[in-house]
Please model this.
Amino acid sequence: MTQSPRRKSIGSQRNPETIAAVRAAAEAVLEQKGLAGFTIEAVAKEARAGKPTIYRGWGGRAGLLLDIYQSRKPADLHPDTGSVRSDIAAFLVNLMDSWEGTSAGPIFRSIVVEAQQTAASRNALDGYFVEVIAETEAMLSRGAASGEICKDANLPQAAEMLLSITVQRLLSGRSLGVKDAGLMADMILSGIAPQTNGSSS
Amino acid sequence: MTQSPRRKSIGSQRNPETIAAVRAAAEAVLEQKGLAGFTIEAVAKEARAGKPTIYRGWGGRAGLLLDIYQSRKPADLHPDTGSVRSDIAAFLVNLMDSWEGTSAGPIFRSIVVEAQQTAASRNALDGYFVEVIAETEAMLSRGAASGEICKDANLPQAAEMLLSITVQRLLSGRSLGVKDAGLMADMILSGIAPQTNGSSS
Model:
């Protein structure tokens, strides 16, 4: 589970009290004003902090939203069911459920919107994708260890494919149920080419 | 290549002259004011049409942008190279190139943004996805005919996976080159599970 070079470390520039104050302010502003009223200005005012502090620490609105998003998403998106096929299907369903059933979905959509406006926001979104991909890769690694997945399979790429289909479904308003999730797990595992004995071109 | 029931047919309500006038106005407004100034109001004024006409005919800003987008995207996203693996890789590269190298990319991003605001826009985006998925499915069908793809493979789902990875890359600012495209084609075809003889669970 390696970190992408594109993820920025900003922790060293921040002190814990400021972080806590800005986070609390961000939660309060989101609660009181909703996503439409969630601006850097409003959060800075609520936190009695300068806007540059927030830009420096979080990169902008998307980074701040991502911080809230991370604190709200379920801890266990990637269960260990004992079968990698079931793990994959459960991950897809868990992620969609967290988006469709909680405030995480609207916040995530808002991050995607923001990411189309500024490079800093796009990097924040990309950093989140890198993180989920790494977590999903760790889940797939269990399948490689158990022999359910090829030792030389490109796990980050498989993980990205799984993530991307949930993102597309969310953004275009299509749900993804248990049956779809199972079909997608089958496809990632077996592909669509006729199975040949031993060769995997 | 079946049409999804979720795609709306609006042609019957529109007369060709109005369509042409609104399209020309939309192109002109986009040219003159850019995406930020591209509003239903501005297009209606330029076309000397009422805003309800545009809402009725195109659903809203996303539908109008999609109309422009469709007229600008390359005709041949899905080449027939004689090998389905090459076709898949070429499709991924062609779609990313059209997004990264032309005005189609910013327009598409703007449609995605709009789709997070209203249900009509979300349906427009979904309708576009349905269309690309159907075209990609047709491409994969050639592989099924030639024996490169299983007869009973779920082609719409494979097509959706291919599309979704390009969407995710675009939205998070990652490019997708020829090498990635080839790896993705391999993965969709062969999967990541060890190949077994004959069984494809």
In short: Chain A touches chain B through 53 residues (CB under 8 Å). Chain A has a mean pLDDT of 89. Residues 119-146 of chain A form the longest helix (28 residues).
